[in-house]
Amino acid sequence: MTHPLYTGSVPVFQQILTAQAAILARAAAHAEAHKIEPDAFLQSRLFPDMWPLIKQVRISCDFAKGTSARLAGQPVPSFEITGQGFADLQSYIAQTLAFIGGLDPALFEGSEARPLKFMAGPNELEFPQGTAYLHRFALPNFFFHATTAYGLLRHGGVEVGKHDYLGSF
């Protein structure tokens, strides 16, 4: 039997990140077809004090890999992103999908009760158990950034809808 925190995390991250990669590919094609500078999308923000699209995508990947690693009791990998283009984001998503897809579901055994403590920027976060971490912190943050990335592209005129955001399941 596959552990519930595995099934409630890794396949969810895989579904949304795979859909995000497809949406980014459509955005790149849209930019090329309409002769729009890619940075018009990549640096777009909902409001000046919010992070741009490129950061929203990277953070959604970071939540997917960090959450999966922590629940599996593994070190959180660090992926290098060298550029600021659509291809660089696709590479970051691919690295994230490869990492989380390579985690053995058995590693998640016991994670529901395991306390978690880690640094998030300058802040130390502590959760009494993996279940609270996944359901009350990690998934909401993951979906926030993935949805914001989708909204930025939709607002920019990329023809995508809810089915594109959800991808295949």
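Second entry:
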Amino acid sequence: MSNLIFSADLSKIRVNFSGPGSENLAAALGLPFAPLEESDVAIFCVSALDGFTPDVTSNWQFARETYIPSIVAIVDLDKSEIDFEDMSAIAGKTLDPVVTPYLVLHSDDGFPTAVISLESQLITDYTLGLKREMESDPEHKELIAEFREEYLEQMESAGEEPFSNALIFPAMPLSLHIKLGVAEIAEWLRKIPSRS
């Protein structure tokens, strides 16, 4: 493994995309599609409105058999009555158990506008497509306390580099029209050792 490095440059990572919105996510990340069998990581877009497409379920099975690190991107959150937490739970039952590094915060009209990191407890607001990071309020910290404790326990018990070793599968919220989730997915992609 000496020829592998942890990449800050996403262009060195070969990514396979499956599911609805894949093309738009690949464009937002500035990454071409790689064939699944040649990929360093796979991203599976799952619709909160329409569920799981056949390519997602078949590619997921192949990725598990070949230990390809995988991310589940939950899309269509602004079109569905099913929220991110519920859809992540469904993904965890349909595919494999997932971890949720972020929770979604909504505007007064119910649309996803921000995420809160369960690790750092920082809020990243994407209102109008502008990314602003801020400290969370004590009320937010109290609301996420149980989710945070569960997430940190999952990460600790999964061992060293659990994502790049395909031992955990993060579920990430994705709302491309305001760019919510793109930077968060990119941050996880940077955890992947890539070929130099």
